[in-house]
Amino acid sequence: MANIFIFLSIVLPIVFGFIIWFRQCDKVSGLLTYSLLPILTFMGFYVYSVDASIYIHTIGLLDFFIVTFDFFLLIYFAWIGMQRKSNLVIFLAIVQFILLIMVISIAPEVNTANIYVDKLSAMIYLLVALVGVPIAIYSLKYMDYNEKRKHTFIAIVVGFLGVMNFIVSVNNIEWFFTLFELTTLASVVMIGYRGDKESINNSTLALWMNQIGGVAILFSLLIMIKDFGVYHFTDLWQLDKTTITMAAFGFLSIAALVKGAQLPFHKWLLGAMVAPTPVSAILHSATMVKIAPFLLLRLSPVIQDTLLSKLLVLTTGFVFVAAAVFALTQNNFKKILAYSTISLLGLMMLAASIGSSMAVTISIILIIFHGIAKGFLFVEAGILEKLFKVKYIEDMNRLLEKAPLTLLFIIFGFLNMTFVPFGSFIGKWLMIEEASNFLSKGSSVLLIALVAIGGVFLSVLYMKVIGVAIKHHRFSKIKVYPQPKNFLFVSVWYYAILSILTIFIAPFIANFVSPIAIFITGKANGLYADGLSLVLGNSTLEFWQIIGAMILLIAIHVAPFIFKFKNVEQVHPYNCGEITKRDAQSYDFNFINNYESKINMIAITLFISVLIFGGNLL
Fold first, then answer.
1. Which of 238, 341, 582, 587 is 20 to 30 A from 249 (CA-CA)?
2. Residue 189 falls within a domain, yes or no?
3. Rounded to 5 degrees, what angle do the CA atoms 488, 489, 495 make?
4. Model-level pTM greater than 0.85?
5. Segments forming the whole domain that contains residue 616
6. Do 309 and 167 reside in the same domain of the chain?
């Protein structure tokens, strides 16, 4: 039964996407999109519940089809390059074409299963279902607001969910390359969907940047086939990492960094902001960029405790801080969310690169909670844009009066990214706990500093946005405006999932997340649930603390509707109630833009170090 559900998790969204595209009908699109939510969720839970990893051997015809499709895909990339007069896209497509021929010509015949599904794959299935499908549901209404080819767009989003399930199911790295490039094609189509000049330019940027990741995978395949004679993830895990070279893994790591939009390749993800908001939601939350930490989690059993691992920690830790700082300079709400995604992807990949059981647990916690919260926030950003014409944070002034429900959802999403007892906070807390076990090593001190500093900057960022949104409101003018049912359903869906997971976060981490880490590393992590409290060593997050924090948050949500003040002048609390003219403003972070080129140079240097020194190319 599990094999059938794996097959359906991949094929069903693609088939539904084709039907939606062919029929171009509201009722069909709505029925199929809504039905995917319970179907994919049920199948994901069933696959997760299987205790053993699932190996599926495929027929040779399927391998032939995938390789043939890959060649046509590369030819199509070259055609796009010619149409858009991009010599770089053409060049990279030709390089990939040649490298793929070389890979196929030397690839040995092996009996290893091409499909491998474990609890990590099943977790992504569930994330795709619980976060990705609601974005498609949200699109049903969003595309009615001055957007073109509604059903074609929904078909692309729905079909892409199947591609995402496929890429996390493959064991054959040659197949992984094909699907990696297929996700690149999806990003090109979605980012360039509106067809204007800026959209086309940004989608071209996404194409050639991700093509670099594809080239890196092909170089990795050539090296691993030549040096090890294998090209499946499960075969790589059997190698003696004390004697093998790291070159192949260095190239695979570069592919992960590119797909994860780490500096200096972050601009392709920022460019997605020109597309309809569901594109940003789908790229930033449950799909696309999550391929990056997923790939490093696949590599973590091999690269753990190597120089490559240490350099990846340094690189992603730097991005975690730098991207959070860059976010503080932004005024566009979606760009703020984009930079925070890049930052937190750095932290996810940092934890995956460390590779210990606790670090892998942390990476998975961040993947899950970031995916849900970021999907939630981008949905609210789209609602602000379409219903209230708000795109920039200065337009959010007195938003509590104009869009109180949406603002409260945004605040809840930000809290999930920052504060106790939410998953992202716990992930950062556990990361510092893990690093503190190795304080005798200088690198661990640096790691603690990077995690702490990045976390502080992100907290400042979210509070900055909230502060602007509630500034100058009068409380008494609050009015809740009705929202379309699709919008409200998706918002409440995310809100409910985050609330439930937070209240039961101890058993969730102990009974759902930890088993995934144990499957990957083969080692326990010391985390366990004492009833509804979370325990790690001498540290305990008590259930009463979790509930107390949740009650406080609910009170904050409700307070503006209960306490209404009229004819009250706003004053600053440190002025003892006296109305005085302000002589100081909050610190301006825009000066950081002057150092962007230098920060990017540091990032480029770290990228090169990962490949050359981490991959032992010298």
1. 341
2. no
3. 85
4. yes
5. 304-513+545-618
6. no
